[in-house]
Amino acid sequence: MRTRILAIIATGALVLAAGEGAAQQPAAPAPNPLDVIPEKMPFATPYGPPISAARAEAAIAAAKAEATQHGWPLNIAVVDSGANLVAFLRMDGALLGSIAVSEHKARAAAKFRRPTHALEDAVQKLDYKFLMTIDDAIASRGGIPLIEDGKLIGAIGCSGGTGSQDEAVCTVGAATINK
In Å, how far from its chain's centre is CA 52? Predict the structure, then answer.
């Protein structure tokens, strides 16, 4: 009986020792998302001819109608495919500090060929702090590229509300072009 108990204790000790050895093995590090090499270039919409003033004003009019419907006084900017200001509207009562921000959102959406929401997500959700060091980037939603016939012809940027309000209004303005 005594031999049997010693055998059980010895077996238990071996199991525990094996478990400790396995527990001490460091887990393989997670791959760094920045090291992943995509097959295709992301956000590779080609730049196209610049948006006309009339179309830029139509996008602003649609955005203004949406903002007015909700009672959100915003600043709304449209830039061309080279990120140059084409049209701008500061609604009555819109935040003065957001004038430049609306233009910045539009420029960033055009230059980086993506909605600024993608930049916000990269900083907020993926912790890509390096984006804050890149010239002309703005990690705040409310900038949307304007695409016609598969080419970027400009971008619209809204500012003065919350990020979600800015983006909702820009989405309506962008819908006049992005079909």
Answer: 26
Of 152, 113, 168, 159, give the one whose Cα is nearest residue 136.
Answer: 113
Instruction: For residues 140 and 40, give the distance between their C-alpha atoms in angstroms, rounded to a whole number.
Output: 25
pLDDT tens track for 45-82: 999 999 999 999 999 999 999 999 999 999 999 999 99
What does CATH list as the number for 53-174?
3.30.450.150
| Strand arrangement, sheet containing 85-90 | 85-90, 75-80, 151-159, 143-148
User: Can you give the residue ranges of every domain in the chain?
Assistant: 2-35, 53-174
In whole angstroms, what is the distance from residue 156 CA to residue 176 CA? 11
The upper half-sphere exposure of residue 149, i.e. CA atoms within 13 Å in the direction of its Cβ, equals: 6
